[in-house]
Design brief:
Strand content: under 5%
Distance between the termini: 41 Å
Order of helices and strands: HHHHHHHHHHHHH
Radius of gyration: 22 Å
Number of strands: 0
Structural class: mainly alpha
């Protein structure tokens, strides 16, 4: 249906990610001292990141680079949550408890209140919708936190708060997360379709063809590099947590260095174009 614009092989790029994903097997978790609940949550979170990665690939290759940023923003937040949970080994169990139960209860409690008001205010629901909403309302939530406590927990798990705490540990390789958090915050324009979204989209479309094509390829390169980086830091953190030999990852990346350089070359095209047409003028 769509012409594939990205010059790299989508299958080879996906294999790059999937091969890293396979470096961490569930059996390897026997080497660590964390309970099954912690291990299962981290595996589920990392697995969902792979699903998002595949969805981004589906958008990037035919050239939907700006739309892919919306999913990349979700992928970044999922990555940040995994790092946030694992950044301090002494707090992992507490954070898993908060993420899996406390925040879930807070969100469910909020949905119950909203749906109760909706059911009271709207009278023309069909019976199927009404039954589905009523099922949520009738599901008991053991909410022991007051409003201030709920607000404090949610703030603790906000994007900004998580990246600030991660930064406070000064772990090598994680110092770029704040940059990504700032950069991908711009995706709110695409999500909410404000005037900045429309201006950006039309301005890019009106550029001269060579410049437009070069920017598109460069943006593909930047997105593919970012997604690749997200996977590397997730894999490193989990291998460290589960006491898996990190040299397995390093050796794999070394074996794929030629393809990794091809990814970086897309961004270089934009750097060269900018240098020639803007910087030197």
């Amino acid at each position: 249906m769509f012409k594939l614009i990205c010059p790299l092989s989508p299958n080879e790029y996906f294999d790059l990610h999937f091969d890293m994903f396979k470096l961490i097997q569930y059996e390897d978790t026997k080497k660590c001292n964390y309970d099954k609940n912690v291990i299962d949550l981290l595996f589920r979170l990392n697995s969902y990141c792979m699903v998002l990665t595949q969805s981004c690939i589906e958008l990037i290759w035919p050239g939907f680079v700006w739309q892919a940023e919306i999913l990349e923003r979700s992928l970044l937040e999922a990555t940040v949550k995994l790092i946030y949970i694992t950044v301090d080994k002494l707090k992992i169990s507490q954070k898993v408890e908060e993420f899996q139960y406390t925040i879930s209860n807070i969100n469910h409690y909020k949905r119950q209140k909203e749906l109760t008001e909706l059911l009271d205010g709207v009278k023309n629901f069909n019976e199927l919708d009404k039954h589905a909403f009523q099922t949520v309302v009738n599901n008991d939530v053991d909410m022991k936190l007051n409003q201030q406590e709920r607000k404090k927990i949610l703030e603790k798990w906000s994007f900004n708060s998580m990246t600030k705490e991660i930064d406070s540990y000064n772990i090598e390789g994680l110092n770029k997360l704040s940059y990504f958090q700032n950069y991908y915050s711009n995706t709110s324009h695409y999500i909410h379709v404000d005037i900045d979204c429309l201006d950006l989209f039309w301005e890019r479309g009106d550029r001269e063809k060579t410049e437009k094509d070069t920017i598109e390829l460069a943006h593909m390169g930047r997105e593919l590099e970012d997604i690749f980086y997200f996977n590397i830091i997730r894999t490193e953190r989990l291998m460290n947590l589960f006491n898996i030999n990190i040299s397995n990852l390093n050796n794999y990346l070394e074996s794929r260095q030629d393809f990794i350089e091809e990814i970086k070359s897309l961004s270089k095209k934009w750097n060269d174009y900018y240098d020639e047409n803007y910087f030197q003028k």
